[in-house]
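== Fold encoding ==
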Amino acid sequence: MGYFCRIMEKTYEELMLGESAWLLELEAPTLYNRAQVLEVIQESVKVLPPQDNSEIKIEERLKLNFRGKLGESPALSLLFLAPPMEKENPLGLELLDKMAHAIGLSDSQYSACFTEDYLAVIAEHRPQIVVGLGVLVNQVLLANKEKLASMRGREYPLSLVDQNDQEHRFLLTPLFHPDFLLINPNMKKMAWEDLQRIQNVLR
Protein backbone atom coordinates (compact mmCIF):
# COMPACT_ATOMS: atom_id res chain seq x y z
CA MET A 1 0.00 0.00 0.00
CA GLY A 2 1.31 3.40 -0.93
CA TYR A 3 0.11 5.21 2.18
CA PHE A 4 -1.60 4.36 5.46
CA CYS A 5 -2.54 6.55 8.39
CA ARG A 6 -4.53 6.16 11.57
CA ILE A 7 -5.73 9.16 13.56
CA MET A 8 -7.64 8.81 16.86
CA GLU A 9 -9.05 5.47 17.89
CA LYS A 10 -12.36 3.73 18.42
CA THR A 11 -13.12 0.32 19.81
CA TYR A 12 -13.60 -2.64 17.51
CA GLU A 13 -17.20 -2.87 18.71
CA GLU A 14 -17.94 0.76 17.75
CA LEU A 15 -16.46 0.24 14.30
CA MET A 16 -18.38 -2.94 13.57
CA LEU A 17 -21.62 -1.58 15.00
CA GLY A 18 -21.20 1.35 12.68
CA GLU A 19 -21.05 -1.13 9.80
CA SER A 20 -24.04 -3.12 11.01
CA ALA A 21 -26.22 -0.16 11.96
CA TRP A 22 -27.72 0.01 8.45
CA LEU A 23 -28.75 -3.61 8.83
CA LEU A 24 -30.31 -3.49 12.27
CA GLU A 25 -31.29 0.20 12.52
CA LEU A 26 -29.19 0.51 15.68
CA GLU A 27 -29.50 4.10 16.89
CA ALA A 28 -26.72 4.16 19.50
CA PRO A 29 -23.54 2.19 20.34
CA THR A 30 -24.17 -0.82 22.56
CA LEU A 31 -21.63 -2.78 24.55
CA TYR A 32 -21.07 -6.05 22.74
CA ASN A 33 -18.06 -8.29 22.78
CA ARG A 34 -16.36 -9.19 19.50
CA ALA A 35 -18.11 -12.55 19.15
CA GLN A 36 -21.53 -10.96 19.67
CA VAL A 37 -20.83 -8.28 17.09
CA LEU A 38 -19.81 -10.83 14.48
CA GLU A 39 -22.90 -12.88 15.23
CA VAL A 40 -25.12 -9.81 14.92
CA ILE A 41 -23.66 -8.94 11.51
CA GLN A 42 -23.82 -12.49 10.18
CA GLU A 43 -27.44 -12.86 11.27
CA SER A 44 -28.38 -9.45 9.91
CA VAL A 45 -26.95 -10.02 6.48
CA LYS A 46 -29.51 -12.78 5.98
CA VAL A 47 -32.18 -10.09 5.78
CA LEU A 48 -30.19 -7.65 3.65
CA PRO A 49 -32.69 -5.24 2.07
CA PRO A 50 -32.71 -4.89 -1.72
CA GLN A 51 -30.73 -2.04 -3.21
CA ASP A 52 -32.89 1.06 -3.64
CA ASN A 53 -31.38 4.39 -4.56
CA SER A 54 -34.72 6.13 -5.09
CA GLU A 55 -34.72 7.68 -1.61
CA ILE A 56 -31.30 9.28 -1.97
CA LYS A 57 -31.74 12.97 -2.65
CA ILE A 58 -28.77 15.33 -2.48
CA GLU A 59 -27.83 18.56 -4.16
CA GLU A 60 -26.17 18.43 -7.56
CA ARG A 61 -22.84 18.93 -5.80
CA LEU A 62 -22.86 18.95 -2.00
CA LYS A 63 -20.45 21.53 -0.57
CA LEU A 64 -18.26 20.77 2.46
CA ASN A 65 -16.61 23.69 4.28
CA PHE A 66 -13.15 23.00 5.71
CA ARG A 67 -11.42 25.26 8.22
CA GLY A 68 -7.96 24.71 6.84
CA LYS A 69 -6.04 24.74 3.58
CA LEU A 70 -5.91 22.30 0.70
CA GLY A 71 -2.72 20.25 0.52
CA GLU A 72 0.02 20.83 -2.03
CA SER A 73 1.32 17.29 -2.50
CA PRO A 74 0.45 15.38 -5.69
CA ALA A 75 -3.24 14.53 -5.74
CA LEU A 76 -4.36 10.90 -5.41
CA SER A 77 -6.62 9.01 -7.76
CA LEU A 78 -8.39 7.23 -4.92
CA LEU A 79 -8.65 7.48 -1.14
CA PHE A 80 -10.14 4.73 1.01
CA LEU A 81 -11.68 6.46 4.04
CA ALA A 82 -13.11 4.94 7.22
CA PRO A 83 -13.47 5.57 10.98
CA PRO A 84 -10.45 4.70 13.16
CA MET A 85 -9.81 1.16 14.38
CA GLU A 86 -8.61 0.04 17.79
CA LYS A 87 -6.33 -2.48 16.13
CA GLU A 88 -5.11 -2.74 12.57
CA ASN A 89 -6.41 -5.76 10.68
CA PRO A 90 -3.67 -6.95 8.29
CA LEU A 91 -6.16 -9.01 6.30
CA GLY A 92 -8.43 -6.00 5.87
CA LEU A 93 -5.55 -3.82 4.68
CA GLU A 94 -4.43 -6.57 2.32
CA LEU A 95 -7.95 -6.72 0.88
CA LEU A 96 -7.87 -2.95 0.23
CA ASP A 97 -4.58 -3.39 -1.63
CA LYS A 98 -6.11 -6.15 -3.75
CA MET A 99 -9.13 -3.96 -4.52
CA ALA A 100 -6.97 -1.05 -5.66
CA HIS A 101 -4.66 -3.22 -7.75
CA ALA A 102 -7.63 -5.05 -9.30
CA ILE A 103 -8.84 -1.78 -10.86
CA GLY A 104 -5.38 -0.94 -12.16
CA LEU A 105 -4.05 1.47 -9.51
CA SER A 106 -0.39 1.56 -8.52
CA ASP A 107 0.68 2.09 -4.90
CA SER A 108 1.38 5.77 -5.54
CA GLN A 109 -2.14 6.42 -6.85
CA TYR A 110 -4.14 5.51 -3.75
CA SER A 111 -4.06 5.50 0.03
CA ALA A 112 -6.15 4.32 2.98
CA CYS A 113 -6.83 6.38 6.06
CA PHE A 114 -8.74 5.43 9.20
CA THR A 115 -9.64 8.65 10.99
CA GLU A 116 -12.47 10.79 12.32
CA ASP A 117 -11.10 13.91 10.63
CA TYR A 118 -12.49 13.14 7.19
CA LEU A 119 -12.27 16.63 5.73
CA ALA A 120 -8.65 17.17 6.76
CA VAL A 121 -7.56 13.96 5.03
CA ILE A 122 -9.52 14.78 1.88
CA ALA A 123 -8.02 18.29 1.85
CA GLU A 124 -4.51 16.91 2.29
CA HIS A 125 -4.66 14.31 -0.50
CA ARG A 126 -7.23 15.91 -2.86
CA PRO A 127 -8.36 12.55 -4.33
CA GLN A 128 -10.39 12.20 -7.49
CA ILE A 129 -12.53 9.56 -5.76
CA VAL A 130 -13.16 8.98 -2.06
CA VAL A 131 -14.29 5.44 -1.26
CA GLY A 132 -16.27 5.57 1.97
CA LEU A 133 -15.85 2.26 3.79
CA GLY A 134 -18.88 1.33 5.87
CA VAL A 135 -21.98 3.33 6.64
CA LEU A 136 -20.70 6.00 9.07
CA VAL A 137 -18.27 7.92 6.87
CA ASN A 138 -20.82 8.10 4.06
CA GLN A 139 -23.58 9.31 6.36
CA VAL A 140 -21.30 12.06 7.69
CA LEU A 141 -20.11 13.29 4.29
CA LEU A 142 -23.58 13.14 2.74
CA ALA A 143 -25.30 14.49 5.87
CA ASN A 144 -27.96 11.79 5.87
CA LYS A 145 -29.02 8.69 7.80
CA GLU A 146 -29.52 6.39 4.85
CA LYS A 147 -28.64 2.71 4.91
CA LEU A 148 -25.50 1.61 3.13
CA ALA A 149 -27.64 -0.61 0.91
CA SER A 150 -29.39 2.53 -0.33
CA MET A 151 -26.23 4.61 -0.75
CA ARG A 152 -24.00 2.12 -2.54
CA GLY A 153 -24.04 1.58 -6.28
CA ARG A 154 -23.57 5.20 -7.36
CA GLU A 155 -21.19 8.16 -7.18
CA TYR A 156 -21.95 11.38 -5.32
CA PRO A 157 -20.41 14.67 -6.51
CA LEU A 158 -18.99 16.64 -3.58
CA SER A 159 -16.99 19.83 -3.25
CA LEU A 160 -14.60 20.70 -0.41
CA VAL A 161 -13.96 24.44 0.06
CA ASP A 162 -11.10 25.55 2.31
CA GLN A 163 -10.70 28.73 4.38
CA ASN A 164 -9.28 30.58 1.36
CA ASP A 165 -12.27 29.60 -0.80
CA GLN A 166 -10.11 27.16 -2.76
CA GLU A 167 -12.26 24.31 -4.06
CA HIS A 168 -11.55 20.65 -4.59
CA ARG A 169 -14.17 18.57 -6.39
CA PHE A 170 -14.36 14.81 -5.96
CA LEU A 171 -16.72 11.85 -6.14
CA LEU A 172 -17.78 9.83 -3.09
CA THR A 173 -18.45 6.12 -3.62
CA PRO A 174 -19.83 4.08 -0.68
CA LEU A 175 -18.40 0.58 -0.28
CA PHE A 176 -18.60 -2.22 2.26
CA HIS A 177 -15.91 -2.12 4.94
CA PRO A 178 -13.15 -4.73 4.29
CA ASP A 179 -13.69 -6.29 7.73
CA PHE A 180 -17.34 -6.79 6.80
CA LEU A 181 -16.36 -8.42 3.50
CA LEU A 182 -13.95 -10.78 5.26
CA ILE A 183 -16.77 -11.94 7.54
CA ASN A 184 -19.26 -12.14 4.67
CA PRO A 185 -17.39 -13.21 1.50
CA ASN A 186 -20.71 -13.66 -0.31
CA MET A 187 -20.95 -9.85 -0.41
CA LYS A 188 -17.71 -9.51 -2.40
CA LYS A 189 -19.62 -9.81 -5.68
CA MET A 190 -21.53 -6.61 -4.90
CA ALA A 191 -18.31 -4.91 -3.83
CA TRP A 192 -16.64 -5.90 -7.10
CA GLU A 193 -19.52 -4.34 -9.03
CA ASP A 194 -18.91 -1.10 -7.12
CA LEU A 195 -15.19 -1.29 -7.85
CA GLN A 196 -15.87 -1.71 -11.55
CA ARG A 197 -17.92 1.50 -11.46
CA ILE A 198 -14.95 3.24 -9.87
CA GLN A 199 -12.63 1.84 -12.51
CA ASN A 200 -14.84 3.22 -15.27
CA VAL A 201 -14.79 6.68 -13.67
CA LEU A 202 -10.99 6.65 -13.40
CA ARG A 203 -10.50 5.76 -17.08
Notes: The chain is about 40% helix and 20% strand. The first strand starts at residue 4 and ends at 6. The two ends are 21 Å apart (CA to CA).
